[in-house]
Every structure is written in C-alpha cells, then in structure tokens.
Amino acid sequence: MTKNNSGQVIVIGGGVVGLASAWWLLQAGFGVTLLERAPDMATGASYANGGQLSYRYVSPLADEGVPLKAFKWLFQETGPLRFKPELDLRQWRWLASFLANCRADVNQRTTNKLLQLGELSKRAMEQLELTIPHEAFQWRESGKLVVYRSQKSFAAATAKPDSSPTRQVWSAAECAANEPALAAVADKLAGGIYNSGEAVADCHAFCEALAQRLTEHPNFRGFVHGEATGFVVENGKVSWLDTTAGKLSADAFVLAAGIQSRTLAATAGISLPMYPLKGYSLTAPIRQDDVAPEISVTDFERKVLYARIGDKLRVAAMVDMVGEDATLNPKRIASLTRQVKETMPRAADYTKIEAWAGLRPATPNSAPILGPTRYSNLWLNVGHGPLGFTFACGSAALLADLMQGKAPPFGLDGLTLAR
C-alpha cells in the first residue's frame, strides 16, 4: 500500500534512472509527472547498453595505474579509449578530477560504497518482480565471468581480498569449459573470476514495461514530451521549470536526465562534475547452431562486455571522450566487430549486426550523485556512467527515502553532490 503524500513531483528524464525514480516516488505516495524530451522513453543511454546487471563488479574506472594504461590505449588502433580535446573547460576539469581519483585508496573507498548501492539495487529490482515479470524484459541470472589475458592482471585481481561466497577463481581451461563460447581464445587467457547471482536483461524493454506500469498507477499525473530549457529559482527554491512544452510547476523536481542534466543544472547555478563517455554496442541475432555465451562475460584488458539477452547477443565496449557527440564512428564499429569475431567467432550472425552509440553520464570517481541540492525542492539522481541499469532501482529507492525525510540504509558519503 502506498502513502498518501500530497507533494507533486516532476521527474526530468525518461531513461532507466528517471523511470525508476518516478516509480519509487509513486510508491511512496507522491504525485508524479515525468518530462522526457524524446517522443519515446529510453532512447538515449538506456536504449542498447550492455544489459549487464553487475551488482558486484562495480570497480571505478579511476584507479592506480589507469593513467599510464590510458596513455598507451591512445596509440592503439583498437584500443578501448579515444580522446578528442575540446575547448570546453568542463572536459579539462573532469580530467583533472579523474586523475586526482586515480589512487588505490580512493578507488577502494568508492568501490565499497558502490557495493552497498549494488546490493540495495539488487534487492530493489527483486521487489519489482511482482509488478514487472522477468520475462517482460528478458531478465536472466547468468552469473558474470571476468576473463584476463594478462597473467599480471589476473594475479592482481585474484590477490584483492574478497569474502563473497559467490566468487570463484577459474583457470583458462575452466573458463572455456564453463563457457564454451570462449573456446576460440582459451589459449590466450590467463584465467577468470566468476560471480554467481549477477544477471542480464534488456534495459530498453525494462523501461518500456516500467513506463506502462507508471500509466496504471493512481498517483501518476502523466508524461510530458518536451525539452527542459532552464530552472527558474526564487527565494531559495525552484519556482518552475521552463520547457518547450511550457512552464511546469510542482512542489519538487528530480533531475535524472543523463548528461543533459549537466547543462540544465547550470541554469540553477549548480555545477555537476559529469562528462559524457561515449560507448558503443553491437546487437546480433543468435541462430540455432550458434555458440553464444550463457554467462555474461567481460574481457578485462579489451574492456568488452558480452551478454546473451533473449535470442540476441549484445556486445558493449569502448570509451570515447569526444563531447556530446552520439554519432556512430564507422572505424570504431569496425574495430569492435573484428574483436568480437576473433573472441567469439560462432556466437551470433554477424552479418546482421545492429550498431549503436550512447553517452554515459560519468563522474570522475564513477559514483552517482544522489540527493538534495542547495535548493530545498530540487533533487538529483544523476552520474551513473555505464552502471545506470545496475544502480537505477537502488538509487531510486534511496531518493524516495530522502525525499520523505527517512534515513538512508547506509551512509551516503561519496554519493552526494557534496563530495
């Protein structure tokens, strides 16, 4: 049963984070209107992402040794990183902050916090099972296998303390035996780390199903399709939101619009430390005789993710720092396709590949930004990077608690705007 709160909330953003925020606020008793600039929901970063729900594999991108690796990647034709300098101070500020976070102690603190958020997100997703059946979005508990090509990287990963009962360390032979899709590269692997309990699903289908449930909720006030252009602030709070669909007023506003949140927050004098990390994905149909992965696989050195979602193979990879440019780069798609065919040559019908690119709103330390701002009625749920699908339900549950004045289930240090 939901509470009967009188507050009316406008959620800005119709991706997985915005939709989940709307749902949890509805369940808390708020009246909710959702603003999305596109004609359909989840057509941005939530559309064709990697599809992995990796609640325990949440290590931040910023870590000790990453700057040197990144420098080497820049000179590799098939490297996972591409960088295009911009005349934009936001890019350089983000890079400076990222480099400051590339320390082992900072990485460990952030990882510990993200593990807490991941566990909460897993439980929150489970709560939705009665509302949205798993088959509606191809949810499957696949487990997750991170494979290492370098003996040094494998040794470093296995040396990290981890008391999780779901963790197993596999040799290269065991990786191929447990996941036959890796047979072609078994002799190139040093080993792998497997975690049960991780899942894969279709994020876009999840968003469509959740959007439908919103329309059926008695507290939902409807969708508004228009682009937010700026907040109007008066007397320490947001009075209204200017949009191409007209002025929108509410008791509270939730900003969950992916990388667009950065520009919109600036209209209220708020600087969000985010930058768009452009990622690519390939989707190919799986034929009857194909050997597609049943386990979700991450190729650690190449930073490539493989997931079987229903009858399709989803592959996601690469980080392009090229500003707010979501266009497909043919060279990057060709490079990724070659790597996929080499690693899993019989996993899908690669003659029918659908390519996609999206902008992942990332913070320098990979932790999302949740909770209040200096304005009493403006709230944030942004900066999830490549883990938006993984963290969407947990961050939405946290946000709903905070907006009701409830204490969160764990300390939010490192997860708020004041970090």
TrEMBL record:
Alphabetic keyword roster: Membrane, Oxidoreductase, Transmembrane, Transmembrane helix
Transmembrane segments: 7-26
Name of the featured protein: D-amino acid dehydrogenase
Family of this protein: Belongs to the DadA oxidoreductase family.
Domain FAD dependent oxidoreductase: 9-402
Source organism per UniProt: Massilia solisilvae
NCBIfam families in the cross-refs: PRK00711.1 (NF001933)
Keyword field contains NADP: no
Enzyme Commission numbers on file: 1.4.99.-
Enzyme class: oxidoreductase
Molecular-function GO terms, alphabetical: oxidoreductase activity
